[in-house]
Amino acid sequence: REEHSKFISRMKHLFALFVLLAVTAAAKDAVRPNIILVMADDMGFSDIGCYGGEIQTPNLDKLAANGLRYTQFYNTARCCPTRASLMTGLYAHQAGVGAMTNPTSTPGYVGHITKECVTIAEVLKSAGYATFMTGKWHLTENKNKLAGGSKENWPRQRGFDRFFGTIAGAGSFYTPNTLTLGNDPITEFPKDFYYTTEIGKHATKFIGEHMVEKKEQPFFLYVPFTSPHWPLHALEKDIKKYQGKYLEGWDKLRAERHARQLKMGLVDQRWPISDRHNKAPAWDSLDEAKKKEMDERMAIYAAMIDSMDQSIGRILGALDEYGQRDNTLILFLADNGGCDESGLFGFERKKGGKMGTDSSFASYGLCWANASNTPFQFFKKDNHEGGIASPLIAHWPDGIEDKDKLRHQPGHVIDIMATCVDLSGAIYPKKFKDHPIKPLEGRSLVPTFTDEPLDREGIYWEHVGNRAVRSGDWKLVANARFRKQEWELYNLKTDRTERVNLINQRADKAQELKSMWEAWAKRANVLPKPQKKPKKNKNKK
What's the DSSP call for residue 305? Predict the structure, then answer.
C-alpha cells in the first residue's frame, strides 16, 4: 500500500507538472502575437490616404489611425532585392539577390535566395508558428517563365505551410502566369478571377481554417500583393470611382499631396517639394486627348490600390471574426517607389485593347510615378529617396499603446526579420539544415513602438550601379541613370528632398561615408559584380 501510495503521489506530481508546463506553453503562445506582413508592389510614398494620397484606402487609414506611421522607412528600390532582404533580414546581395532573378555564378547575384540565409517563415516555424503566404514570391531563378524555375526555393520549400500565389514577377491580373497553390500550378481561371481579390480571399481562408483547427497556435502570414505594378488591370467598378479625377494633372496632384503631408507631419516644412522631373512635361502643355488618356491611366492605377485596400479589409474582417485583431501585429509597406520604367506616358503592349482589361497590357509612366513619389525625386531602381522611401504602418492594439502617432527613426526592410524574431521568441540560427547562416543584419523595430531610438552605424544600398549610405542625418548617394554615378551628399534633417548637394562643402563627411560604403560593399557581397558577357561579333564567321 505504501509503495502504491508513493506511486500515485509521484503520478499526481508528474501530472501537475505536465499541466503546469502545458498551461505555461499555452500562455506563452497567447501573448506571442500573430504577425501579418503586407506589401504593395511598385507603389509610391504618397499614394495611400494616410501618407497624403487621395486614393480611397479606408482600411489602411484605420490601421494608421490606431497605430503608427513611420516617416523614414526604407526598401531596397526594387522588387526582388526588397523581397530578399525582407524575408531574410540580410542585405539583398548577402541573400544572393543583388540584382534580379537572372542566375549568375557571382555570390551576390546568383538569382535566388541561398542556403546561407533563412526566411522569416523558417525561423518562426521553428518557434511553433503556423506559416502562410498569399501573393508574389519572385525569389527564385526564372529559368522557365511558365515553370517558375527550380522548386527548391519556392515558398513551401522555404518554410511556408501553405501558399497561394505567383512564383514569378509581373503579369496579368486575370490570367497570372506561374500561379500556384502549394506546389501545384493553376492554369484555368474563372471569368470573375482577379488576382488582387484572390490574394485577399486565400489569406482569409488560411486564417479561418487555422483558427478552426489550431486556434491556440500563433501564425505568420505574408501577403505581398502585385498591385499596383503594371499591367494596369482593375475592375470596372473600381475604375469608375476615379475616372475624371486626374484631369487637373500631375503638377496639381503633387502640390495637393505635399500640402496634406505637411499638415500630417509626414514631411518637414524645411524640405521643399522636389522639382518636377526634367523629362516630364508640364500638364498644361498636353493636348486634351493626351490629358484624357493620362487621366484614364492614373484612374486605373488608383483603382488597383483601392482594390488592394479592399482585400486588406477582408483580412481584417477575418481577424475580427475570430477575435484575433488585438493580438496581431500588422505591418504594411511597399517594395520600392513609383515606377518610371515605362516611358513618360506609359506603354501599351497590346495595341487596340481596352485599358484595365486583359486585352490591354499598359503602364502609367514616369510623369505619374513622379507624383506617386511626392515629395521626393527619382523612382524605382534609384537610391535617391523617391526610389527607396516606403510607407510603413504598424498596428498591434495589445502591443502598441500609442495611436495615430508618427515615428521618425530610420528603418529598413532588413529590420522586419529582427522584429519578428524579437516578438515571437524565436532564435535566429547560426546553422540551418546543416548550412551555416549569415548573421542577422537588421535591428528589431520593437523599441520604436515606444519611440525609443535604434542603434546602428548606417544603412546601405546598391542596385544596378545606384548606391547609397545613410548614417545619422547624412546620406551619400550616387545615381547611375540620371547623374552619371557621381557621389552626392545631403543632410536629410534639413533637406530630405535632396535639393542641396553638400559634396564640396563637406568633403570630409563624404569621404567618411564613402569609406563606410566601400567596406560594406566588400563585406556584403556587393562586390565583385558579375562580369558582362562579351557581345558576339555578328561579322565573325
Answer: H
Compute the C-alpha angle 143/146/150, nearest 5°: 45
The span from the first CA to the last CA of the chain, in angstroms, equals 101
Element (H, E) at 94: helix 92-95
The contacts of residue 403 (CB under 8 Å, 6+ apart) are 65, 66, 67
Residue-wise pLDDT for 179-216, tens only, equals 999 999 999 999 999 999 999 999 999 999 999 999 99
User: Taking the CB of residue 103, how many other CB atoms lie within 10 A of it?
Assistant: 18
**Beta strand 162-166 pairing with 328-334:** unpaired
Q: Is 45:374 a contact under the CB 8 Å cutoff?
A: yes
State the pLDDT confidence band at 1, using cuts at 50, 70 and 90.
low
Which pLDDT tens digit goes with each residue over 146-155?
Answer: 344 579 999 9
Grid cell 500550378 in the structure block, residue: 185
CB atoms within 10 A of CB 166: 22
Q: Which three cell numbers stand for residue 19?
A: 499541466
Please name which of 186, 221, 178 lies closest in space to residue 314, comparing C-alpha atoms. Answer: 221
Residues 6+ positions from 35 with CB-CB distance below 8 Å: 124, 129, 218, 219, 220, 221, 328, 329, 331, 420, 423, 424
243: left (phi over 0), alpha (psi -120 to 50) or beta: beta
Q: Write the CA distances from 189 to 3, 179, 196, integer angstroms.
A: 70, 10, 14
Write out the H or E segment, with its range, that includes residue 5. Answer: helix 2-31
Helices (H), 274-379: 288-321, 365-372
Alpha-helix residue ranges (DSSP H) falling in 373-412? 385-388
Structure letter (DSSP) for residue 14: H
| CA–CA separation, 520 and 527 (whole Å) | 9
350-354 CB contacts, 8 Å cutoff, 24+ apart? none
Q: By the 8 A CB rule, do 95 and 280 touch?
A: no
CA angle centred on 93, ends 455 and 489, rounded to 5°: 55
Contact 474, 482 (CB under 8 A): no
- Strands 34-40, 328-334: parallel, antiparallel or unpaired by DSSP? parallel
By C-alpha distance, which of 182, 446, 423, 206 is closest to 319?
206
Answer positive or negative: Cα dihedral of 75, 78, 83, 85. negative
- Nearest in space to 494 (alpha carbons), one of 482, 506, 484: 506
Q: In what order do the strands lie in the sheet with 459-463?
A: 459-463, 466-471, 474-478, 488-491
Residue 118 contacts residue 429 (beta carbons within 8 Å):
yes
Burial class (CB in 10 A: 0-12, 13-18, 19+), 191: exposed
